[in-house]
């Protein structure tokens, strides 16, 4: 039997990183929940709003995604907008929040739109310890140091960090796959939501789809035409593709 040396090295790296994360894991600090008004300022639904149409729409989407994934374990969900400004970040943030409403569930939102990051500013978080780019660049970095509370209990943000031209291929790196393993393996395990760059114009969304269990496409209602939506959807594995969310706006960054 032939052994692949590269595979052995990667296995060692994976084990070493998970051991480091485990040994340095600190108990999660209690999150102070924001009021509904504070969450509205952050364009994020609040668990106190259950019963309102928008909140219940995201809760229904949560139920459908869990069913699509087979309701087994914690999942990685890719949320990809058709085009810039369709509202993908809004949907990703609020879908992650809806999952975190369940007291038995934890969630992490990762801002993967490296060159147009918005989650930290929208949630009014100062990423003093860095974010995704810093984790991917530094083999000694610990993801636990870069997870920030959002104001919703059990929901944390891993912001994008500071991107440069050399960061473009990070999303397809071995360390990106390792990151998801670490997040799913942390105590307690958690669902992971990837806020993707738009499908149109770059391959990043399709690269991230390889890491996801479920893919959600976001179309701006009246903004993305049927041909653009169909072309974007066709680029994803049908076995992972959960469907299209039509965002009525107001849309985020054009």
Structure description:
The protein has 254 residues and is an alpha/beta fold. It has a single domain, classed as P-loop containing nucleotide triphosphate hydrolases (Rossmann fold, 3-Layer(aba) Sandwich). It contains nine helices and seven strands. The protein has a seven-stranded mixed beta sheet with strand order 3-4-2-5-1-6-7, with helices on both faces. Helix 1 packs parallel to helix 7 and helix 3 packs across helix 4. The longest helix is centred in the first third of the chain and has 19 residues. About 4% of the residues have low confidence. InterPro entries: Bact_polysacc_biosynth/exp (IPR050445), P-loop_NTPase (IPR027417), Wzc-like_C (IPR005702). Keywords: ATP-binding, Nucleotide-binding. GO terms for molecular function: protein tyrosine kinase activity. This is Polysaccharide biosynthesis protein. It comes from Luteimonas granuli.
Write the layout of secondary structure elements.
Blueprint: H1 5-23, H2 36-41, H3 53-68, E1 76-81, H4 88-100, E2 107-111, H5 119-122, H6 132-137, E3 148-149, E4 155-158, H7 174-185, E5 191-195, H8 204-209, E6 214-220, H9 226-234, E7 241-247
Parallel strand pairs: 1-5, 1-6, 2-4, 2-5, 6-7
Antiparallel strand pairs: 3-4
Helix pairs in contact: 1-7, 3-4
Keywords: ATP-binding, Nucleotide-binding
Protein name: Polysaccharide biosynthesis protein
GO molecular function: protein tyrosine kinase activity
């Amino acid at each position: 039997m032939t052994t692949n040396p590269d595979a052995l090295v990667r296995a060692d790296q994976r084990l070493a990183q998970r051991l480091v994360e485990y040994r340095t894991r600190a108990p999660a600090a209690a999150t102070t929940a924001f009021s509904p008004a504070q969450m509205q300022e952050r364009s994020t639904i609040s668990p106190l709003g259950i019963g309102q149409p928008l909140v219940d729409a995201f809760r229904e989407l949560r139920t459908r995604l869990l069913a699509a994934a087979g309701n087994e374990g914690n999942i990685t969900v890719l949320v990809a907008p058709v085009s810039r400004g369709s509202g993908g970040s809004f949907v990703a943030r609020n879908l992650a929040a809806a999952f975190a409403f369940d007291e038995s569930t934890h969630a992490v939102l990762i801002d993967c739109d490296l060159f147009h990051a918005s989650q930290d500013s929208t949630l009014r978080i100062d990423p003093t310890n860095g974010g995704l780019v810093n984790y991917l660049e530094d083999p000694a970095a610990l993801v636990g140091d870069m997870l920030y509370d959002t104001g919703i209990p059990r929901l944390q943000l891993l912001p994008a960090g500071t991107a440069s031209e050399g960061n473009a291929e990070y999303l397809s790196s071995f360390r990106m796959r390792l990151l998801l393993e670490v997040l799913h393996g942390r105590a307690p395990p958690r669902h992971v939501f990837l806020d993707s760059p738009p499908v149109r114009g770059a391959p990043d969304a399709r690269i991230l789809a390889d890491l996801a269990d479920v893919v959600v496409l976001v179309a701006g209602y009246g903004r993305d035409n049927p041909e653009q939506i169909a072309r974007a959807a066709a680029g994803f594995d049908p076995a992972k593709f959960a469907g299209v969310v039509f965002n009525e706006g107001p849309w985020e960054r054009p």
